[in-house]
Each structure stands twice: as C-alpha cells, then as structure tokens.
Amino acid sequence: MAKQCPNCQQLLDEAVRFCPICGSQVSEIKPVDAPIQIAEGQLPPPLIPDSAAQPRAPLPLSSSVPPLSPPQAPLMRPALLAGIVLAVLSALPVVSCCCLIWLVGGGVLAVYFLRNEMAGEISPGLGARLGLLTALFGAVFWQLLDLPMSLIDGRGESLRQIEELIRNTENLPAESIQIFERFLAMFNNPFNPAVIVFGILSKLFLCGVLTTLGGVLGVAFFGKPKSAGSQRPV
C-alpha cells in the first residue's frame, strides 16, 4: 500500500513521515488500497533518455577503419641481383671496356627483375629509386671483385708505364714528379684502405648517375602493369 502527499501529490511509501519533495508532514495520511491516479507531470524522469535509447547509426567505414597503405614494392631482391650482374661484367678484364653500357644496363635489368616481382605499374620515380639502390650494391660488389682482378690482369704494369711516362716528361718539376710517384705507389697496392675507399666512391659516383638513369630508362620498357593473363599464380 502507498499514500499520497496532499501538497505535491507525490506518491510515497506508507512508512514515510515527511514528503522528500516538498517537506510536508504525511505521518497522519492514511494509505489507500485503490490505485492512485498520478498526473503525467508527476512521473519521475526515465533513467535512460529517449535519444540514448535509440540505436545509433553505424559510423562510416572511412572514419571507423583506417585506410590501408599501399603495399611497398620489393626493391631489395631486384637491386641485389642486378647489382651483382653489373659488378661482374664491369670487373671482368675482357668485357670491362664496355662498363658504361653495363652501368646503364644494370638499372634496366633491375626494373626487369622488379617486373617479375610485382604486377602493378612501375613509375619513373620508383625506377630511379631502384636504379640508385642497384648502384649501391653494384659499386660495393664491383670494388670487391676489382681487388683480385687487379692482380690477375696486370694493372700494376699499367701503373709502372704511367710512372715511366711521367719521369720522361720534360719541363716537369721534380716536386710534381715526387707527388705523382707517391700516388702511383699508393694505387699500386689495391688492398690499401685509401685505394679501396677511393675506388668505392668513384664507382658509386659512376653507378649513381648511369644506373639511376638506366632505372628510369627501364621503366619505358617494363613499366606498364602486367595483364591479367600474364600474372604468375600465387
């Protein structure tokens, strides 16, 4: 059973002595058995607002899930393979006379190897990056192969001929002859650290220019995306 406050008409428990809403004394009010009619304004507010009870619209996919980044092109393997081929052809005694061709061809070959690794379009910027990476590998391997080759193909004899030519040059100051002899003596030892560093830097300069150009040139031949029928099965 319940009773009703005579002042604010609030529905109260039968054991309450004072109305918690208006403070009126309700201890003398008798509870009633019949249902009490309560106006709509006297109803307590709902625990959950109507707006919160309604289901929310799902967030758009673009705001809830971050977009996937495009896959990175596999440049390491094509650059390494092309760099090794570039280094071998440039270090061999017979074919090294065409080293400028091998430097440009190394960049083109790297793009060809990349075409076998990916099916998408190869942009000129990607070809240039691939050519530069091939130049780094090619310069290091070229210098490593150049060390034993310098002892095999008699390059020390060529340095001695240059030294003899300098000595026989007329009107050349003695100080200049001594400087040239020191440089020639240093380069006569291919395992000298200074010679190795100079060799890598010089080769890196040549490869960095020509092999990068070859990578851009290779895009003209192998840059178009593969057709659906020519893709390799996964």
Write the layout of secondary structure elements.
Blueprint: E1 2-4, E2 11-13, H1 50-53, H2 61-64, H3 76-91, H4 99-117, H5 124-152, H6 155-167, H7 174-187, H8 193-222
Antiparallel strand pairs: 1-2
Helix pairs in contact: 3-4, 3-5, 4-5, 4-8, 5-8, 6-7
Strand content: under 5%
Percent of residues in helices: 55-70%
Element string (H = helix, E = strand) = EEHHHHHHHH
- State Rg: 44 Å
Q: What is the number of beta strands?
A: 2
Number of helices: 8
Major beta sheet, strand line-up:
1-2
Q: Can you walk through the features of this model?
A:
The protein has 234 residues and is mainly α. It folds into two domains: 1-34, no CATH class; 76-224, no CATH class. It has helices at residues 50-53, 61-64, 76-91, 99-117, 124-152, 155-167, 174-187, 193-222; strands at 2-4, 11-13. Strands 1-2 form a two-stranded antiparallel ribbon. Helix 4 (99-117) packs across helix 5 and helix 6 (155-167) runs antiparallel to helix 7. It is rod-shaped and about 135 Å long. The two termini are 77 Å apart.
